[in-house]
């Protein structure tokens, strides 16, 4: 095309030159045509976005590496940019793919490498049952770092707190699954950046002042509605989000410390979508009867289960998405009353009296730690138990005198350990819910004295904590007695409260021969202790439920020892004195001698006549 002729391409359009280029290629031989069609790729001239290809294709108006929809000398837009290759969606990517100018901001890169002082939220999964001080001490001991947890609070079943240092937060996170909780579970720890600073103590004081102004002492009513848009708080640049566990914890703490007599609470219009935070207010407000939850974001009626411990008589849910799910008012009232049966007002409307059965309210019997059906023989049983577990911990071969020749013995463990594994007991366990094979059901029963002693020798060594013992005496006759011993022991040698603890329950059926007991049937159950049992164990380190010696004093008199020995052995004062004298006034040794002689029937009957 001539410059003066009509053309559908402008003089600045490179497509006119490309046309000519291809025509010249077609005039060559077939082999040359193929070579040119491939763009001399085999010779290395065209590899991805090679510079030689760009120099042939780009006219003087091109901008080289800087041209990407840029202008030429006449101001027209160069639609080709740095190259005019045909787009091949399935072609092999170029090594220079996505080569874009990068901002060389050394300050930003340095800030990413260096730890910054921002806030981080630490979440302890299932940490609501863990003690805050215990958890802090365990992390500090493991990570060897000192930190102060800010705003420690509960979020549903988890616990959370904040730290203001990246290195400290990362160190705490690295402790995940390296700490074992008292119930034997590994403690999982999560960390994430927190995009705002926790509320300071000064601001908490301001929140307390605002809540105090909203509290009516004559009716014990607190208006905590729409706290996020409260003008006083926003004037102090406090944006209280009650639907977050951290901010709900602040309100809970203020109410717990100042207005525990609360009877009516309005917490409407706070965008609540869950009661995971609100439920922690229940223990501190036992008298609450009226609750306003209107205009929140509750979507499920099942959320009411989390706060069902409140005995509410007035409840307002109007304005929540869950209300639109009901087309029947009767069904709506019925579902709400499932959690609050004494409700008399719902959404401002009086409700018909609930239909209740006229059932007499009966209080449950008081729980007692030790149960003794009859005091007859109780002292003998207690002394037998004390001596039995002493021998069990020291030398189980000494237990031969405690078992009948034709005794039976079984041991079992729960299907799930819920803590440290019970693998050492597994092959001996006779849990009938787990064992289906009949031959295994029979083989796990020890059916004579020798088999029982052999089985006991195979079990892990133990050291029992007598302060944890509870004794239930269920049956006492002249021929047989049945009692159960429950408690905690340390698996292995040396009792340590923080070691591997096991809880046990052992049921004994004993034959009575005079004042001697012979075990004819024993059922031994082993499991991991609950957190409450471990807590109780730490609280009672000195109390002994089953006396194995007289109460410790600075210098117990011989008369006190005789009286105690006579009471526990059942012998009269004369024979008790004789037994103590012959054993050098060693109370434990005298008790062991008594058990051995009494087991052999060597103690005369008159020794028990008082």
From TrEMBL:
Pfam families membership: LRR_NXF1-5, NXF_NTF2, Tap-RNA_bind, TAP_C
Record's GO cellular component terms: cytoplasm; nuclear envelope; nucleoplasm; nucleus
Disordered, as annotated region: 1-117
Domain (NTF2): residue spans on this chain: 380-526
Listed GO biological process terms: poly(A)+ mRNA export from nucleus
Extent of Basic and acidic residues compositional bias: 9-28
Cellular localization per UniProt: Nucleus, Nucleoplasm
MF GO annotations: RNA binding
Main location: nucleus
Keywords for this protein: Leucine-rich repeat, mRNA transport, Nucleus, Repeat, RNA-binding, Transport
Membership in a protein family: Belongs to the NXF family.
Protein name: TAP-C domain-containing protein
Protein species of origin: Ciona intestinalis
Lineage: Eukaryota, Metazoa, Chordata, Tunicata, Ascidiacea
